[in-house]
Amino acid sequence: MAQRTCAHCDGPLPDTAATGRPRKYCTRQCLRAATRDSPTKTCTHPGCERAMRAKGLCSTHYNQRYIPDRHPRVEVPCTVCGATVVRARDSRRLPTCSVTCRTLLQHGVLSGVDHYDWACDAQRRALRLGATTAHRVERDDILKGDGWRCYLCHIDTRIATSPFDPRSATVDHVVPISKGGQHVRENLRCCCLGCNSSKQALLIDELTA
């Protein structure tokens, strides 16, 4: 009997007796590669030569045709400046048009605007990551309590217009949740983005080791 080969890589397939049923692909990687994009068929959209993904279309044209039907887009005003924002109709986040407006909204520096509830979101995130205790703690109380100074490098942090500024103020769990830390005031400190990114899920002793 001739050796059967993988439909994707042409490699030998495992013995049917060992697997219990005939297989078309030798590994899961080949299965995913073959079903994600067809190596022999192209998109049916006029002028497109990309590999077919589903329903006769490539990834780009599939998303353009079918995704908007599942998540209708609507135009709404930015919560901060009023500029037009196009987003999914069922989105639960307050609409903002830029990183600057999102940052201002999150820090609650705007009068008369219902800002993003960081304390509630942080509680939910901590419980989702495995914390057994998650108190409601306001971010501003933590930052002001530490004098807006990073507890690791001792520089003065700030409310940055960009969330990618290394000196922007963040809140860090001194003992990471993944190592048994809890979301309580005693375990929360002001930390600059640079140090928070470098520390990740390490203990302070592990940083200096």
TrEMBL record:
GO MF entries: endonuclease activity
Keyword Hydrolase: yes
InterPro entries listed in its UniProt record: HNH, HNH_nuc, NA-targeting_endonuclease
Claim: Ribosomal protein is one of the keywords in the record: no
Pfam family for this entry, one: HNH
Domain HNH nuclease: start-end pairs: 147-197
Protein name: HNH endonuclease
PANTHER family for this protein: OS07G0170200 PROTEIN, SLL1193 PROTEIN
Top-level division of the source organism's lineage: Bacteria
SMART domains given in the database record: HNHc
